[in-house]
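Technical appendix A lists one of the benchmark inputs used to test multi-chain prediction within the project. The record comprises two sequence entries:
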Amino acid sequence: MSKFLDKGAFLPPSDYKLLPLKFDRLSHGQYVITNFVGEYLVIADDDLHNLIAHTLTPSAAIYPDLLAKHFVYAPGQQAPLQLLALKARTKYARLANFTNLHIFVVTLRCDHSCPYCQVSRQSEDRAAFDMTTEVADKAIEFVFRSPSPAIKVEFQGGEPLLNFEMVKYVVRGTKEKNKVFQRDLQFVIATTLSLLTDEILAFCAEHDVYLSSSLDGPEDLHNANRPRPGRDSHQKFVAGLEKARGALGYDRISALMTTTDKSLPRVKEIIDEYLRLGFGGIFLRALSPYGFAIKTKKFASYDTAEWLNFYKEGLAYIIELNRAGIPFVEYYASIILTKMLTPADPGFVDLMSPSGAGIAAIVFNYDGAVYPSDESRMLAEMDDYKFRLGHLLENSYEEIILSDVLMDALETTYTGSVPMCADCAFEPYCGADPVYHYATQGDMVGRKPESPFCHRNMEVFKHLIELMRDDAEVRRIFYGWANNC
Amino acid sequence: MTLPVLLDFDSQIYSGDALQKAAYRCIDRITVQLERNGSLLSCRIESNLGVDGYDFAQAVEEFQKNVLDYQLRERIRVETEPLRNLVLGIAFSRTGLQGGE
């Protein structure tokens, strides 16, 4: 008698049970199905209907993928449920660590006067727009109330280098306190690089400080977007970049770009400028509907469809670069692809649910006010204090973190229960962003069919999935982006 | 001005929930009034200001497809909700986040 079961015993069972899934339409009569841990499959119309009607046969070509990606399981099996639970736990692991990113707005003063800037002030009045040591001390205490084992302290402005004494004070104070708390600390200064000096670089080298800068494209575009006295913003950026790379190391300086109406026809030139200056990728960002971007009508100067064309053209160009053997990443796509192709959540605040506001990032304004995100302090600079959580000198950690303002924002905007989001196949990749919807629709939840945030992101999600569906080489490139390799 | 479109759905086949969700998804282009008439769910579909002709027809077609989609989604949700709760229960048990563990 044989020791082995008959081969019929290893055939897939003819019956199956559905696991939780959502679906949405793609082009070419196909659907995408996703589960709550973010796995997805592209499926034909007929297969989807058969799947749901329990008439799909195990011999269907898609059946093994449905099993492997936890859309169905055989009755009696326990492993698929355990695996799905493990993936859910991995996906939400970040929540238990609570706030990682702590933003110190050390000054609102700036040497630039960018028309889309949210907050900067052209002022010599240090007392009016600089953070005081009293506020900084309280903010440092606040940082260490977070249970997060990794703490990132980011300095923003204005131009933080205009109050570099406060940057030094906070870095030294945080490191001193960390001798007791032993967290994994990281410091970042968001700067235009225009005011960089040898002294500043020496301090950054000594304390392992990263620099995050801004580059909007070729010289004429960058200078038009980022005016400063002398019209030399780009020149200053390039000089600062070279100097900083020499002092700190090549990978210690990153750059972000902002898309204005002037950028729209020039995406390839913008990408080429990033390549020319030795960056390994670019974040093709849309303009935020806050602050001076609204006052100067910059936000309304292009619509979502125009931005999507810009984005898709840029992404296509970047893919061509990769095909030609030039490794280059589009970072917004890479964040989303990490959610689609791995169990990890990259923790990008705009694409988190519950919203990352306050619980993934928190902002200490120069005047001591605390906000749940950079965008909400920008609203406050327009005299809208909707998201002001409290004040460092007046309120305790508990009063600020448990404030009704924050709790309401997190609870009411959770995408698992918001109209349209709750049923959306792309919900595992998307986020709540209460501040955006409040700023654009006057309501934290917002009506999603009318939301540029929803329209933009749904289109990007679909586009990425369709690109991978249609081209194996793109799929290979995207897997590399999702896994940082 | 585009004339309203009237559509009837058999309530034995389609739920009010699915119709409401489908209507909500098209809220940027059309406004749907839902009424129960015996065993029928009647929809009066009007175009939003500035939505005319082809765009309106497209939105109505989209609405009808959405009704089918949301009806299917409801079926999946009813069938899989206990499993979803079970899996999330397993995922967040023994995390050390609850007191007394």
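The two ends of chain B are 65 Å apart (CA to CA). The first strand of chain B starts at residue 5 and ends at 10. Comparable benchmark entries are summarised in Table A2.
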